[in-house]
């Protein structure tokens, strides 16, 4: 059975801290690993990773994939209160557009 | 671009009634749309894959007679929760992918529908 597991389940930090969110996966026909940020409504897309070892970066957020060890991390540096959200990772598969979502990590950033 | 519109954003209904939720891709054609369900503080659980012009594919454990899905055009899929019960109360989110990019398409999500069954 396909499975995506995230850790930690929740995280509380102060503004300015750096956080690392983890995502491990066991997905048949794996093709890509995606990260989303979900605040109150729909998830918004952050990154899609398909190759090992190539870091993707957007501002204070960055992510990398390890296809040998079957995991990905999402780093957020100099966190701000606006980073508070649930961060979801998902596995993308060949031959279908459906995504297998992980459990999510709830990040709370306090001033 | 790649906007998905979902309607209504929230609905309250009485037990035993049916509720229809619409999902539209506004600026692209979506041969495939996905319906997810999310309980509080839990992740997105895929309910079904909706294919334009054919029957939906339901995930294990999802009752196809209770959650009716219709994908009549390349821009519209509907989910009807029939004979709703309080345990059906949840957040339902649709998503759509741009045609022909299996596994490489960062699904575009609607804003979700919060269903409360009283």
Describe the overall structure.
The complex is a heterodimer of chains A (111) and B (118). The model of chain A has no long low-confidence stretch (mean pLDDT 94). In chain A, strands 2, 4, 5, 9, 10 and 11 form a six-stranded mixed β-sheet that branches. Chain A has no helices and eleven strands. The termini of chain A are far apart. Chain A is 0% helix and 59% strand. Chain A has 111 residues and is an all-beta fold. In chain A, a hairpin with a 5-residue loop joins β4 (30-38) and β5 (44-49). By secondary structure, chain B is mostly beta strands. Chain B is built from no helices and eleven strands. Chain B has strands at 4-7, 10-13, 19-25, 32-38, 45-51, 57-58, 67-73, 76-81, 90-97, 108-109, 113-117. In chain B, the strands form two sheets. In chain B, strands 2, 4, 5, 6, 9, 10 and 11 form a seven-stranded mixed β-sheet that branches. In chain B, β7 and β8 (76-81) form a beta hairpin. Chain B is globular, with a radius of gyration of 13 Å. The A-B interface holds A 31-32, 34, 41-45, 48, 50, 88, 92-104, 106 and B 4, 6, 32, 34, 36, 41-46, 49, 93, 97, 101-112.
- What is the string of SSEs of chain A from the N terminus onward? EEEEEEEEEEE
User: Which parts of chain B are unreliable, with pLDDT below 50 for 5 consecutive residues or more?
Assistant: none
Shape of chain B: globular
Using DSSP, what is the number of strands of chain A? 11
Based on Cα principal axes, name the global outline of chain A.
globular
Average pLDDT of chain B, to the nearest integer?
Answer: 89
Q: Report the structural category of chain A.
A: mainly beta
Tell me about the largest β-sheet of chain B. Answer: 7 strands, mixed
Oligomer: heterodimer
């Amino acid at each position: 059975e396909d499975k995506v597991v995230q850790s930690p389940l929740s995280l509380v930090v102060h503004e300015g801290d750096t956080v690392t969110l983890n995502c491990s996966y066991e997905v048949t026909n794996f093709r890509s690993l995606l990260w989303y940020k979900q605040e109150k409504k729909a998830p918004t897309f952050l990154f899609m990773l398909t190759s090992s070892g190539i870091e993707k970066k957007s501002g204070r957020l960055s992510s990398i994939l390890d296809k040998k060890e079957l995991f990905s991390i999402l780093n957020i540096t100099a966190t701000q209160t606006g980073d508070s959200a649930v961060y979801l990772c998902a596995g993308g598969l060949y031959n279908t557009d459906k995504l297998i979502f992980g459990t999510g990590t709830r990040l709370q950033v306090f001033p | 671009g790649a906007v998905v519109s979902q309607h209504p954003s929230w609905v309250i209904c009485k037990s035993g009634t049916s509720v229809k939720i619409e999902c539209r891709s506004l600026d692209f054609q979506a041969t495939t749309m996905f319906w997810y369900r999310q309980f509080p503080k839990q992740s997105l659980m895929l309910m079904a894959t909706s294919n334009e012009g054919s029957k939906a594919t339901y995930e294990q454990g999802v009752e196809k007679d209770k959650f009716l899905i219709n994908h009549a055009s390349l821009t519209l899929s509907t989910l009807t929760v029939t004979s709703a019960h309080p345990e059906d109360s949840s957040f339902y989110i649709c998503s759509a992918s741009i045609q022909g990019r299996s596994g490489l398409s960062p699904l575009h999500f609607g804003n979700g529908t919060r269903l409360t069954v009283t």
